[in-house]
Input
Amino acid sequence: MLIRVLPTLNHRDHWISLCQRESPYCFVETPESLVDFQTGFLQITQLNGAVRDGREAVKFSLGSRLSLEPAWALVKACNWRLDTLIEGLETLDFRSNVRDNSLLGVHTDLSVRRYFARERHISSPSRLGLLKPLLQMPDIWDGHNLSRLLANDQWQDLQPARHSSAVTSNAASIDCNSLLLQLLDTPEHWLGLSRNGRLYLLHQRNAIASLIPDLQPPQPRLQQPPI
Output
């Protein structure tokens, strides 16, 4: 799960690069948003005003159950500009059938939904800052360094710790994305402890998860988007 924070998303090459990533998911600084490509849908979460709780954010989901091509056609029709796309989405009347709106005339299979995001642990890019990869093992594994480690996929074998607290449930697996966003929400409450080759992530002195640090950069899996 390599999360990128892009200054803008207003060029064809940027969209293609995003689609080619193993996890086509990124934050954008201007306009502040979260962009996520699903199987046939493009999801855009607006994060204006330094959103702290993702449930406050408006979310658009546009696409088709058949393929991503209708959503991709709309992006091209907006001249590859995320700001233009969001401006157009904000003009839609969601009380009526959005398929009939002229903005969506680029493809008859395209549909759009507007709703409030359900993910609590989503913050606006202005709160995140740029999480650069670690170049060497830090002297102290504070919340910021742990966030950099997770955000840049510089780890292996992430596992929940035994007897973990309520921050992360005692499940057979642990979601790295959710864990990272909890770190970003309260970094001052987290600390890393190295023991027997593993790094333990502690929240208020309670072990939540453990992993093996790996500072080698990940290699993205190429996928060909529709053009």
